[in-house]
Prior knowledge:
14 strands; six-stranded mixed sheet; alpha+beta; 307 residues; elongated
Amino acid sequence: MNMRFKERDRESRFYYYGARYYAGWLCRFVSVDALKDDYPELTTFQYASNNPITNIDLDGLEGIDALDYFSRYKPAAARAKYEAEKKREYKTTTPLEDQPKSRSARNENITSEVSGYSQNDSRTIDGPILSLPMPKEFYKIKSEDFFSMSNYLKSSQSDINYAQRLIDEDKVTFATLHVSGVNDKASAKENMIDAAAGDSVNRSSYGTAPGGRVELNPKLLSGLYKLSQKFNFSVSELAGASHSKNSKHYEGIAADINYINGMHVSSEHPKWELFKKEAIKLGFKFLGPGDPGHSKHIHLTMPRKEN
Length: 307
């Protein structure tokens, strides 16, 4: 969860704010504000009323003044209360028709223990006590408004999801230096950090490397993640380093593997053939022991499109 004590969905990486889901890597919500008609001067995907410097956003609707909030309510006590109750499943005690419709009205009930659903609604939620009652407008949001955006984000940002998962789960080691010993901003580790943030990644600028940036293939990251569920391994290069002139690394579709389960890749490695079998099954093109120039490392390529 983040500093606002919000729950994060592990599948989508979105934070649940009550009225909407928040995409941290975009610094915005993924559906329109339920009260957008009341505040036409604000962008519909805004966070904290477009003023995150002085405002906080408790429920995905509008921002409230942070100094005012924290002067009236003690965050430590609120967090302690949340931690004690976060695993409970509860419903609101306020009928939907009696719930406040505006920010000023909701401020009067800011310490309410309701989670945001009405007695008239059979759904329940495991969520933070700091969530506020949801106004009627919340229930008028069309499901396609949210899901069309979230599905777009999931598909277009699938590289972010898998890059972050690879970093978080720590089953794959990403080199911080190139095999050549060069230290730049295009190491495998730096590439992964950039991809996890939703950015293109650096290519090296020495030797035959062309410099510039390239998008890592989401299918490449997905494949590496799936391999990591069966093997621990080390990635020595992604888009960086100096390779042959037309190297697939420069296209963001290749990875070099030099260790599997703690042992250096070689024809004597007990698992390299099983690794090869699983990689090919996932759609990788494979070069490794037995192929010219690959006796000590594995080169995986994942085409962006099916051939």
